[in-house]
Amino acid sequence: MRNYLLLICFVYSLNLLATVREFPVKLSLNTMFDSHTSYATGIKGSVNSGGKIDIKLIDKNTGTLLFQCILNNTSTEFAGDGQSYAKESLGSGAIYYPALWNSLDFKTALFAIDRKHYDQQTIRPYSFLSANLELTLKIEEVNAQMQFFKFPGVGIIDQYGGNSLFHPKHFCYNLANASSFVTKAWTKVKTPNMKANSDLIIAAHRGVWGDNLGAGVPENSIAAIRDTKKYTDVLESDIMITKDKQLIVSHDYSLMRLTDYSGSPRDYLFNMNLSQLKNLHLRKRDMTVTDFKYLTFDDMVDALIKYQLVLTVDIKEIIARRKNGVCIDNCEYDPKTHGEEAKKKVKDSWMEIMKKCIEIAASKNALQYLAFKLPHDYTDLLNYVSDDTLSQVLFMPVIQPTRKDYLDFIDSWIVNGGSRVLAYQTNFRIAGDKYLSPFTRSGVEYTNLLHYVYAKTGLRPGNYPEEPMGPKGIVNRWADWMIKDLRVDWRGDYYFFMGIPYGKIMVLTTDRPDMWIKIDQMYKTITP
User: Rg of the Cα trace of the chain?
Assistant: First the structure.
């Protein structure tokens, strides 16, 4: 009988075996108390009879409990309960805690811990709620399995102790990097807030340039990159390749609009060596020549690190130039005259630039600063770059208005890209565009393509507003000026954009970050 009881106890103890895992976390108090931060928290997971999932965050400096959440029942929503503690039971690190503290009240605990850190500092003045705290995340599972844990300023943590918004090979996945600028910037992009009146992400196209009636600094100059930080953490710039395989930051193939080049307007950047370009001087929007010069991609990566910016890379591959329906330059790249061979040359050119961007950023330990905008499937990339390397950067698939397989394209990225995707650029032009019309897919109704992206991925849609650059209108990569036809293209109309369902969470790549920041702030204050 005694042996039988021992056997029962042994089997029962096996069913209640506990696993405990610990992970280092760096928490930015600036992020925790930022107006964008959601304070929702909790656990998702499976809990068997008599089991539990117990999550703790402990301040390493003082050994004090900052947060505890316990899940006693299986939940597919973020849930859990706190524990009540007398502060005396938590040690000297809790001196500024209330007499009775609930372990879900992490804001009170963070204030108290920061004040305790103040006591330990000799340097004054002390900037409260701005430090990075070193924490220990402790996950205890008793007859249970955690799926996700959500905590403000850290993200949604998976069962392996990483930030689930990112691929495990990405810099931002590691919770030890949770307080880094890059993790905070990309996390903000990847976590749209549909409850806000407006939650736009502004990406400064070519930096901040062209202000003061065109007398401001030139586009893509080092000053334009630096000044981006006035409005946003996100920069978007175009990258091109030279004849001798160097990468240049430039919007135009033609050299005439952007520089003091004195040759032919049909001398293109990709047909010239770096030595022919490095001494050219950039022009302001009003065409005044400056002392600024072209930036190489090496220069750009250095600037991202120095000025603390992240970059969405818009690769300008080599393509054919057609005018009035006729190919006039680079016709070997023209699919209309050279078919599949030309398509392959264009794709190879795009991939070559991406590979070089990755090589340069990797040499500077800066892959985490990059997200590539692209029209290609993830499976296409694998023919040129390894999955291991691709998982260390982010991607923003671009759906052009003329694309016919756009839903299949998005679904392919959902399946194959997964957490490598930053957002989706859903380019529409006017209210009647198919992308802005309701549709049904797999029996589910969607308001528009933006809704589909958000519903399927939780990520942001996006667009390029393409505001006029001046009295000549807009300019293409060949430096051809065009006046926008408002009968077919409403981009640049701020109120049109803000009235689109799911438009308030878009990533907007714009030449006017100064204006879009004001629009975003204005809509944030409107009472629904």
Answer: 26
